[in-house]
């Protein structure tokens, strides 16, 4: 089944807190990897430190996840695969890593990715463009910071 990849240059991926099945971060990672495969990842890095940390704790390799996205890729297929191949202890460790240990990163991402949407209702059009450009710059800087970090 082919899943349409999001264009992350124009639309942010899902929040890292959005649960896909019983997993935090999985929906966001799927969006980033689908976009990477399609060449629409914008300034995002598919396998940043937070993503690889999540996969490590879930017991899934980057290569295995890449193949899974390429071969089956739908959200339902990902959920079935993770439910069948990731133990409860691994799931809990992966979710704890994202939601507790690295909590500040999803907080920052949610705030930054939501900011232009909130501001657009209260600022004149030229201010929106400046804020959107500023937000894009901050996203690039944040991605470099988060994806360069060892986690």
Question: How many β strands by DSSP?
Answer: 0
Distance, first to last CA: 33 Å
The average pLDDT score comes to: 80
Share of residues in helices: 55-70%
The fraction of residues in strands falls at under 5%
- The total count of helices amounts to 7
Our count of domains comes out at 1
Layout of secondary structure:
Blueprint (H helix, E strand, L loop, with lengths): L25 H13 L10 H10 L3 H10 L3 H11 L2 H14 L2 H16 L5 H24 L3
Give the structure's gist in a few sentences:
By secondary structure, this protein is mostly helical. It has one domain.
Describe the structure.
α2 packs antiparallel against α5 and α6 packs antiparallel against α7. By secondary structure, the chain is mainly alpha-helical. It starts with 25 loop residues before the first helix and ends with a helix. The longest helix is centred in the C-terminal third of the chain and has 24 residues. It contains 7 helices and no strands. The protein has one domain. Helices cover 65% and strands 0% of the residues.
